[in-house]
Write a structure and sequence with these properties.
Strand 1 (about 1-5), helix 1 (about 15-25) and strand 2 (about 30-35) form a beta-alpha-beta unit. This protein has about 220 residues and is an alpha/beta fold. About 50% of the residues are buried. The chain has a single domain (about 1-215), classed as Class I glutamine amidotransferase (GATase) domain (Rossmann fold). Helix content is about 20%, strand content about 25%. The termini are close together. Strands 2-1-3-4-11-10-9-6-7 form a 9-stranded mixed beta sheet, with helices on both faces. The chain has a two-stranded antiparallel sheet with strand order 5-8. It has helices spanning about 15-25, 70-80, 90-100, 145-150, 210-215; strands at about 1-5, 30-35, 45-50, 85-90, 105, 115-120, 130-135, 140, 155-160, 180-185, 190-195. The radius of gyration is 16 Å and the shape is globular. Its EC number is 6.3.5.3, 3.5.1.2.
């Protein structure tokens, strides 16, 4: 399994993601510049990763300009053929802007940039995971029709919880509707999440919970 990490002007978590995948998970990583288009070295067994940061300075809307990069046209085609794609933080925003995932990411409810550890839970995991966040526009929003479809199809992969895995509004760091921290498409090949699992994959940082996130995506 290979991993391609797309680098946009303003990406600032691309090397964090490379280090986590390459050095902590021992994966083959290829860095992809946003102006390039070639994904011929990847198969649908591989992953394309859109990292966090502030692509194109977050002008217009977060991810709105990155969505039109030449590489993103290839990523969209790759995903439409069944290829696996993961977007983290700004990458999640790009996925929503590109239409690969439904909904949008709005400014945080408190109108402030939030940077701290939070807890997130997936129904298949026995415990909540402690994963860092760092974003100013992480409040997931969609209309009731979309939200109900996400619920019905089990597409909500992570919700913000307390440390014991309980849904609690006080544990929601940005006001995301229904405490949503991450979602996937119906085919379960495109994944987006606001928290940063790549910042929790080494004992040097005192946290290995991010490894569980990557394992959930079949990336271990």
């Amino acid at each position: 399994m290979k991993f391609g990490i797309v680098v946009f002007p303003g990406s600032n978590c691309d090397r964090d993601m490379q280090d986590a995948l390459q050095n902590d998970l021992n994966k083959e990583v290829i860095m992809l510049w946003h102006k390039d288009e070639d994904l011929s070295m990847f198969t649908t067994d591989d992953y394309i990763v859109l990292p966090g940061g502030f692509s194109f300075g977050d002008y217009l809307r977060c991810g709105a300009i990155a969505r039109f990069s030449p590489m993103m046209q290839s990523v969209i085609a790759f995903a439409n053929k069944g290829g696996k794609v993961l977007g983290v933080c700004n990458g999640f925003q790009v996925l929503c802007e590109s239409g690969l995932l439904p909904g949008t990411l709005l400014p945080n409810g408190n109108q402030q940039f939030v940077c701290k550890n939070v807890y997130i839970k997936n129904d298949s995991l026995p415990k909540a995971l402690k994963i860092p966040i760092a974003h100013g526009d992480g409040r997931y929003y969609a209309d009731d029709k979309v939200l109900n479809e996400l619920e019905a199809n089990n597409q909500i992969i992570f919700r913000y919880t307390d440390e014991f895995g309980n849904l609690d509004l006080s544990a929601n760091p940005n006001g995301a509707i229904r405490n949503i921290a991450g979602i996937c498409n119906k085919e379960r090949t495109v994944f987006g999440m606001m928290p940063h699992p790549e910042r929790a994959t080494t004992p040097n940082l005192g946290n290995l919970d991010g490894v569980e996130v990557f394992r959930l995506f079949g990336m271990n």
